């Protein structure tokens, strides 16, 4: 089963970034276990959720090497992709499709776990693997972040580790320019340090608002 998402600073910072955007058409990728649709400002905002599992409008395997979102070019003002690409072998494919379906100068909000966060740096020194480290599809009993489907099959462990530099390079490679970069503070089963007391490079999660270059 998918793990429950608690209301950490990652959620709060993401909400604040989204609330400052004025959009009409939103695409949220990987929204099966948590969606930010509750923050939309009016019923006129079109919000489409995509995932392979969970309650979504469109079912799509985002982990495919040839993922193709079922939308025409330049459809959405905003694409949200939080805590998704670390599960994908080909995250550049998701960003390629995101670029395609965004209108000119449209926005993307993306977040990833930070393998070089403050708590993980301490953990590395003590010989511990970070809880967010890539673990493939090992079962949960072996400290994996994979999800267990009904029937016992395994899906969706972390397969790529991100820090700020790798995320920035991926966005630039995919045709995006960063407009805002935030961190989630330090999270270890609960909020240990708030987001405002340390830079994003030391935070447990890196949260980035980027714009499609045109």
Helix content: 10-25%
Order of neighbouring strands in the sheet with most strands: 3-2-1-4-5-11-8
Termini separation: 41 Å
Could you say how many structural domains there are in total?
A: 1
Low-pLDDT stretches: none
> Overall mean pLDDT score?
90
Number of DSSP strand runs: 11
Order of helices and strands: HEEEEHEHEEHEEEE
User: Which band does the percent of strand residues land in?
Assistant: 25-35%
Q: From the alpha-carbon coordinates, what is the Rg to the nearest angstrom?
A: 17 Å
Structural class: alpha/beta
The major pleated sheet works out as: 7 strands, mixed
* SS element count, helices: 4
In short:
The chain has 214 residues and is of the alpha/beta class. The chain has helices at residues 9-19, 91-101, 118-125, 164-173; strands at residues 25-29, 46-51, 58-59, 76-82, 102-113, 147-148, 154-155, 176-183, 186-187, 191-193, 205-212.
Task: Provide a descriptive summary of the structure in words.
- The protein is α/β, with parallel strands linked by helices.
- The protein has a single domain, classed as Rossmann fold (3-Layer(aba) Sandwich).
- The chain contains four helices and eleven strands, in the order αββββαβαββαββββ.
- Strands 3-2-1-4-5-11-8 form a seven-stranded mixed beta sheet, sandwiched between helices. A two-stranded antiparallel ribbon has the order 6-7.
- The N and C termini lie far apart (41 Å).
């Amino acid at each position: 089963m998918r793990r429950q998402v608690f209301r950490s600073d990652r959620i709060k910072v993401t909400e604040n970034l989204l609330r400052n955007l004025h959009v009409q058409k939103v695409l949220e990728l990987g929204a099966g276990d948590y969606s930010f649709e509750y923050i939309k400002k009016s019923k006129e905002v079109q919000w489409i959720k995509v995932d392979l599992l969970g309650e979504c409008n469109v079912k799509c395997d985002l982990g495919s090497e040839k993922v193709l979102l079922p939308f025409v070019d330049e459809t959405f003002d905003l694409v949200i992709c939080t805590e998704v690409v670390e599960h994908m072998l080909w995250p550049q494919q998701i960003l390629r499709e995101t670029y395609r379906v965004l209108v000119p100068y449209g926005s993307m909000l993306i977040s990833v776990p930070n393998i070089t966060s403050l708590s993980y740096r301490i953990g590395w020194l003590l010989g511990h693997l970070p809880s967010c480290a890539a673990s493939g599809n090992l079962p949960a009993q072996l400290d994996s972040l994979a999800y267990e489907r009904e029937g016992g099959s395994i899906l969706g462990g972390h397969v790529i580790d991100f820090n700020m530099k790798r995320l920035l390079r991926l966005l630039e490679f995919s045709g995006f320019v960063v407009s805002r970069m935030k961190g989630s503070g330090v999270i270890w089963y609960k909020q240990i340090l708030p987001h405002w007391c340390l830079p994003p490079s030391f935070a447990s999660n890196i949260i980035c608002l980027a714009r499609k270059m045109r």
